[in-house]
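A quick aside before the break. I want you to see a complete sequence-to-structure record at least once, exactly as it would be stored in a machine-readable document. Don't worry about memorizing anything.
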Amino acid sequence: MNVPTKHAKLLAWVREVERMTQPDSVVWCDGSKAEYDALMKIAVDGGLAVPLSRRSNSFLFRSEASDVARVENRTYIASRSQDDAGPTNNWIDPTELKATLKGLFTGCMRGRVLYVIPFSMGPVGSPIAKIGVEITDSPYVVTNMHIMTRVGKRVLEALGDTGEFIPCLHSVGKPLLSCQDDGGLWPCAPMERKYIAHFPEERSIWSFGSGYGGNALLGKKCLALRIASVVARDEGWLAEHMLILKITSPEGKVKYVAAAFPSACGKTNLAMLVPTIPGWKVETIGDDIAWMKQGKDGRWRAINPEAGFFGVAPGTSMESNPNAMHTIEKNSIFTNVALTEDGDVWWEKIGYDAPGKLVDWKGNDWVQDRNDKSQAPAAHPNSRFTAPAAQCPSIAPEWEDPEGVPIDAILFGGRRPSIVPLVTQSFDWNHGVFLGSIIGSEITAAAIDANIGQVRRDPFAMLPFCGYHMGDYFAHWIRMGKKTPAEAQPKFFMVNWFRKTAEGKWLWPGYGENSRVLKWIFERCDGTGQGVETPIGYLPAMDAIDRPENVRAEEMRELLAVDAAGWRRELEDIKANHYPRFGAKLPKELARMLEEMETRLK
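That is the input. The structure line, written in tokens, reads:
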């Protein structure tokens, strides 16, 4: 075995894991195309992957039916103190959890290869980047990590012999007997043996039993958010569940925006938006995660720590996101979508009917029946594509700038059919943190939930991803505001593309038309946009946003109105059901913001 590093701590950890997991062999990943191709051949020959004849160098995987998404109830923050994990995380004592995991990991890689993946989150050598090393027994994980991170020799060179790294241990949890293989079946452990465990104090991740997405690609939510949020708190920066985009005006002026949205709120669509306003341009820096550190001038500079997109396929179409559709034309991995007879992929809301007989995500024949409303979908609702960010048509030239891009505005949004206006600007930094702390989406009949019409709060879109107490998280944001000079602070905005009439008609067309809202945000950052002070923040003047042709004047007035009675109910809900969750750790600044808004609304 050729070991490509002299890093004593890393070598000792790999040897320790090898003794515990007992693999047949150990391979150090170099990140090369030859390595990727060889691993894909293993997957295809083993019946786990299907080559797509209609898309160059692209493959389809089908997971086991119980292993299709992040498993929140099996995801743990094992801080030494339960109070540090807070009320919104699952907590287990770290000593107890480590003992359980060591029992599960013992012998778990028998019959398999142990892969060592050195990877960089962020451009290699960037002062904002971090290095991780994932050990896994899954070729699917290695190939996805090739796309989602920077893997291989240059990462080990940047790490050197003594550099810091975050150890990430993963196994599918299904050892093999001698001369056995997976028989074309997705390897994973039963749900009750799945664990996605984070140890904040020792900066490590142990994941057992799942081979899917954020449970197994440990650079993604596990490192980039849950562990990185703790590191960011301790080191004085921000690790956020935010897209990053670049806006250029017809005059050539540039602004950079970071934006946090809960799931199903059009985050990837916004990151790759095609503007409908002539002369304006939007480019992509990142679609999911932003790491931000202060530059020498005090401004917050952000990198996208990922190198690829791990996007939800259903609903992605040429109408909703043409840039994503072009990105996935080649060199992509698809998981749990449907397969066409001519070797292409298909999913619900792709923009056209299913082309004849398909093979669905479970491997069964499937023919679309538009008259059967109960027909099971051909693609799993959480089916995914993994694609290199570099081949996105809207990728910005500076997306890999190691210094990051300077953030001018921070957006928060959710799915709210009423009350929340199309766009609102905060009065200042702390008011912006207040707006971020209360965002959420209204529960609809599409959710498995009895509380139809209530709001599911997801502060900063970080509720499933913050590695410590959310009250301390809010306090960290407020501290970061205090250390940021007023002239260097980004402006905060709350947006809502999802307003409806009483009859259920959309008030705002969304998609590319959201560029009209971005234009006003750009102008506010530039000091030129017209704003009106209201009890909830600054709203655009009626003629400050270029109105789309299919939005009537009275609809625009409704989109930009302050529903005082609705907001009073909103604040009552926050006071009674949301803020009490954070107990004594809720910053007094946020409690004061709520009281001041109540007073202004009287």
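Two observations worth writing down. DSSP finds 16 helices and 31 strands in the chain. Residues 309-390 form a domain with the Phosphoenolpyruvate Carboxykinase; domain 2 fold (CATH 2.170.8.10). We'll return to this after the break.
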